Amino acid sequence: MAxxxxxxxxxxxxxLIFYCLMFALPVLQILIFYFYVNFRSIALAFTEYDxxxxxYFFVGVENFIEIFKGVHPKMTNFxxxxxxxxxxxxxxxxxxxxFIPAIFFSYYIFKKYPLSGVFxxxxxxxxxxxxxxxxxxxxNFVESALPQISExxxxxxxxxxxxxxxxxxxxxxxxxFTIFIGFGTRVLLYSGAMSSISESVIESGELEGVKPLQELxxxxxxxxxxxxxxxxxxxxxxxxxxxxxxxxxxxxxLDTKYYTFGYYLYYRATKxxxxxxxxxxxxxxxxxxxxVPVTLCARYLLNKYGPTTD
Amino acid sequence: xxxxxxxxxxxxIALSTLVIAPACSPVISGGDPNxxxxxxxxxxxxxxxxxxKEVEKRFExxxxxxxxxxxxxxxxxxxxxxxxxxxxxxxxxxQSKNEVFFHQQVLYFDYVNQSLIRDLSGLLxxxxxxxxxxxxxxxxxxxDIENLTVNGKIYALPxxxxxxxxxxxxxxxLKNRLYFSNSIAEDGTRKFITNDNTPLSPGPNxxxxxxxxxxxxxxxxxxxxxxxxxxxxxxxxIWTGEYTHYTNILITALYQSYMGVNGINAHVDxxxxxxxxxIVTDFDLITNAEKPTPMIQKEVITQENGYLVxxxxxxxxxxxxxxxxxxxxxxxxxxxxxxxxxxxxxxxxFMKSGLKPGETAAMLIDGNYWYxxxxxxxxxxxxKSEYSEAYTTxxxxxxxxxxxxxxxxxxxxGNAPTMIDSYNAYCFxxxxxxxxxxxxxxxxxxxxxxDSELKEFTKNTNGxxxxxxxxxxxxxxxxxxxxxxxxEMRAEAEKAGTYMKAFSNNTIFKANMNAFMVDGxxxxxxxxxxxxxxxxxxxxxxxxxxxxxxxxxxxxxxSTWENTYxx
Lengths: 310, 567
Hints:
The structure holds two protein chains of two kinds. Helix content of chain A is 73%, strand content 3%. By secondary structure, chain A is mainly alpha-helical. Chain A has one domain: Orthogonal Bundle (MetI-like fold). In chain A, strand 1 (47-50) and strand 2 form a beta hairpin. In chain A, helix 1 (2-44) crosses helix 12, helix 4 (116-128) packs across helix 6 (167-195) and helix 9 packs antiparallel against helix 12. Chain A starts with a helix and ends in a 5-residue tail after the last helix. By secondary structure, chain B is an alpha+beta fold. Chain B folds into three domains: 36-117 and 119-154 and 423-501, D-Maltodextrin-Binding Protein, domain 2 (3-Layer(aba) Sandwich), CATH 3.40.190.10; 164-239 and 332-415, no CATH class; 246-325 and 502-565, no CATH class. The longest helix of chain B is centred in the middle third of the chain and has 24 residues, at 246-269. Chains A and B meet through helix 4 and helix 5 of A and helix 1, helix 4, helix 17, helix 18 and helix 19 of B.
């Protein structure tokens, strides 16, 4: 009996060592990349960099006050009107033209309507090929091919449509690309969720004479509502990090009128200016303080008032 | 069958991704296992790495008997890439294998403050027997020693100098009679040449028979020249549409030329050393509503009124020229605004300009390194083989820009060109270098800064000057015409003291480098018009703002200066 217990204990020890080894790396990763990075970022928000000594000094909430007053020395290129309107515009456009059509497309694929397989491949291809390659192809298409097609087929002259000179067309082509490049993921997620719907549910609906649109609205969407909520919540969380693919298209050369919060933070961080990190951290923290309640509230409302299968 | 097609497609797409992957992360290949390896990182931009490959051969030969850890000889392992600049290297240098670096856009003080690079003071003071017992420090300019010294130590050496500006095609200038002649009209202005043999004006430097003859010597003449180009259906400028900040290169070049060394020193040091700088206080809109005239007052720049550097007349004049050029397609090559018109495309088009049918562009907006970059890309060879005979008329030259606003420069009255480098290119040693490799790394740096290697550098880079003192004039005969022109200008600037690096160890400058560095992407160019644009080109093209609007939007108020920049 004692022999058996000893063997068991040795086995437990081995298992424990195995578990420890297995968890060591992920735990270390969480400690460094989640706790340390975030803690450091929060701490930076309350400091100021001294160029002479190369050290950070505690300044309390000074950075936050200066940001609210709009007088922080590092608030160059910060135009709240443009940044906020672009950020909200891309969010709204993604919801309107990314989210709703994605549901319809997913349904189309789910129902295996003609060429649904082809659409699936076309929509998902951008996710296999590097985004930057698509950026180059798209840019060449819009700037070289599209003007020629437009002139030859319709006699319409298209000039300066995507070089920031024409603000509306530049913004349109940036938004279109951003929605297009993210479309495949949505379709794949929704169609994946739809595929788990029991065939008997669909069949019983069909037997009762439910039309496709009714089937989508009253059966399919409620059954995948959990996935939809998750996706919408992710969208809201990402409001302040959405760049509208601006950095990939224009790098540092983007004019302020196309800035989003996502681009602004990313671009300023790439400047790698030590004096700017405290300001960026403070700004990021403020955005988090805004995004957290909005996200939680949206999640609560979506779950409470969303469609049900009842 | 369907499954097979899906499988094939998946494999093809996966492979296409794999093919791209190696380009994203440069792999440093191993060297000879019997030799000591020295890792050298290099920014492979316009200046390229041809020069470094040559250094590698000579250094390995010279140290073929070098002994370390039982190994004999040295194998230099190069890591040249375009993706990592001095700006981005700062976040990865501590993980980098490279021991010696040659990079541009180096945020020197941040590297030093974070102890990322080694103190080179000992190396700089050491006499080099292979270099007539000279020390490297003796080759450094006083101003560089002053700027780079931190707590009595120097951590980096100036690498190369690049100058923003315009390159013009002397062939197109001659063919279209765009040069100014030596004769003066009744109204006191210069006439253009009428034939190939018309004597040329002495140019901005006021000396006949040298590199700038016939070029506009004032901003007024510059306007006259671009209008003549327009009249002859020649586009004044061409640039890459891929990078919007290239439009700021034109403004930078004109601004620096007008301000001169004293003006730019006042800009980076916030101290004009008692010299008065022209400041625009307001605009006279009554005399000529079409063309506002700046009202100028002279001011001595100090730490207290440093904000005035953004109200200088030189800045306004530069913006005014650029606004005219960017404001009408009559002045610029059609593809310059296209985002897919790359730097290489711009260089190629400029080199073929006038040789092939279509729009002709007379001047290229780029740094003087473009020629070397184009050469590395094989553009010169390509154009030569495509237009064998006509190619002889192709004569790109770096342009000496005007330094005064009105009138003309008469013989003996001009100034040497203003040559200002704002690329912050440095050579340094990684602080992580193993102690037993430091000697080898220092030997390599010392080797690169011997007189003979400095000259070889200039030879192998089509006239790029190293940022230290050496006799680059002695190799002029071995350079191409373009490089010869740059070297002549640099030599004259050095002699006259009109050369400098736009860099300072001034505390305000260091704390606000992005706001005052005069490079194409810095926030120096930011204006309140258009919601905070930093590209005059876009403000003019997109929203019809004038140079005056843009200039007024660039101002820093006294209270902002006191509360933010000069706290």
